[in-house]
Amino acid sequence: MMQESGTETKSNGSAIQNGASGGNHLLECSLREVRSNGETPSVEIGAADLAHLQQQQVLYPCPLGCELNSPTSFSLQALQVARQLLLQQQQQQQQQQQQQQVSGLKSPKRNDKQPALQVPVSVAMMTPQVITPQQMQQILQQQVLTPQQLQVLLQQQQALMLQQQQLQEFYKKQQEQLQLQLLQQQHAGKQPKEPQQQQVATQQLAFQQQLLQMQQLQPQGLLTIQPGQPTLPLQPLAQGMIPTELQQLWKEVTSSHTAEEAASNNHSSLDLSTTCVSSSAPSKTSLIINPHASTNGQLSVHTPKRESLSHEEHSHSHPLYGHGVCKWPGCEAVCEDFQSFLKHLNSEHALDDRSTAQCRVQMQVVQQLELQLAKDKERLQAMMTHLHVKSTEPKATPQPLNLVSSVTLSKTASEASPQSLPHTPTTPTAPITPVTQGPSVITTTSMHNVGPIRRRYSDKYNVPISSADIAQNQEFYKNAEVRPPFTYASLIRQAILESPEKQLTLNEIYNWFTRMFAYFRRNAATWKNAVRHNLSLHKCFVRVENVKGAVWTVDELEFQKRRPQKISGNPSLIKNIQTSHTYCTPLNAALQASMAENSIPLYTTASMGNPTLGNLASAMREELNGAMEHTNSNGSDSSPGRSPMQAMHPVHVKEEPLDPDENEGPLSLVTTANHSPDFDHDRDYEDEPVNEDIE
DNA sequence: GGGGAAGTAAACATCG
DNA sequence: GCGATGTTTACTTCCC
Hints:
Strand content: under 5%
CATH superfamily of the domain at 481-562: Winged helix-like DNA-binding domain superfamily/Winged helix DNA-binding domain
Helix content: 55-70%
Structural class: mainly alpha
CATH architecture of the domain at 481-562: Orthogonal Bundle
Strand order of the largest sheet: 1-2
Distance between the termini: 29 Å
Number of strands: 6
């Protein structure tokens, strides 16, 4: 299993790569946008202007077929250029209009051939500057306006609006043309012919050159993405994303960037749609933080969606706020209190292209993770199926946790097949009930060929019995004739402890066995004998004479004594755990930042960090803590009637009093939880507070 | 390979 | 005598 774990990790990586292979334009664009965020836009647009633009812009899909239907880096870039164009045009027009005020209105400009609606159109372009400052100044200076003057002004405004609209259309048209040029530039680059195109081209060129300069000046420490270095390790990115996926993204980004550069050199890449690189640096403020925004983009990978903010802004447990720091990707702005955080959130992380892009990146990451989870589930299923098929083989490597039971069940079933059935000829290896509602780990495949197994289910690897375990797998064991991976002693103890009075007669123990486990509904002679044997053998089981007769109780002290094999020293288990964690690591990386904030310990993070692997780790944790959770059976809630949810809920992570040497943090906790060959140690956590870290 | 734990089988005793 | 219960022994397997 160790080897398999290692292989699994590797294959996981490949799987991740595969998952990332479905690279997407969104990520690419977003990433590039993020990168470009770190670069200085050539367009000098004030923060207020851009904010206004961002708020009012209407965005359209990327001309390059980008799937973005909402604000994108492209659109922002286009907006800026368009904005600049408009400003220039307006200035020219204002001059012309001032001249035309005498002669009349000037007809709108030309260039309105095709209203291609694939270009960002800013409503803001149309509204805020209908009256230019000069005009306003004139108005103010004139103090009094005659009706004619007002009419002229109105007409001017209308003309301006028309011109702006036409400019926008022109800009759209240019976008299309430039896009076409981009598509054609591989074959024959075309030079912009029209003056307007040249103007835009010049601006774009300058902008892109500036972008390139910024990229070159970008500190490597913050972002390793460098043009022409596609193989550079994406360390910062790797923290937020799967490395292979990042590599894939990097390739896409760099390839696009290379094309961008090449196109730029050809003077034919001036189209805004060449890349989704946004000149989105919305403001100078963003320029300042942009170098960090490079990492922001990576961090955005694990940023909660902004869409959810509105629902949670009123909650002080805001997912974007913790430890007095804004958790927005790359922000890390210190907010003294929640109110300041809210202000900061609304001010710094308003709805703009960057935020939207980051959200999209995050969405993409989540999708990738989900995809990865699905793949891993398939892999797990295949593994178990494979192992089941291999059950005819003489040996099967033990596996941790419930997988062990699955494997061992199959193995022992095959091993004991000649001798397994004789116990109950009347009940052959019954077709196992397909259990879908059963435990998360044990699957139907592991249940086949399960017969009387002369084998103990290594408590070292395996799950110490616990209320949680039984509760989790209750239905499974009740319906499936699968031998529970617990020792007789543990089961007996569990049965006794689950009783209200912590004592049971032998018959009641029998009943508990048959009630809880379908497996024990047959081969009665065998397992009953074993029960009796264990009751007598182990000192922990004390026979007490009662009015009704003899009842059996559990001497916990003795039970504790009888576990010499401390799993704290069980390397295989630890290895398993570590392997699991390693397995989790790649996917976990996406959320390391958030976890780091909380200083979440290792295996807790493994379960928390990644939603996709959270199940795995959670299952493991459930199993691990199930051992300790068994406290409940000794506690007030140990009544048999407690619900599975109740049983599963508590997670004890406190040190084991009887084994102080095992208190070494989460890992030692894990080992402690597993090392016991039995479930006795559950007792040790009796009345211990529930670990609330793991949620 | 040894030792310990666990599972299985069996013999035996006791008791109702 | 029979079955349930309880004890003990022997053997095997597994794991460390």
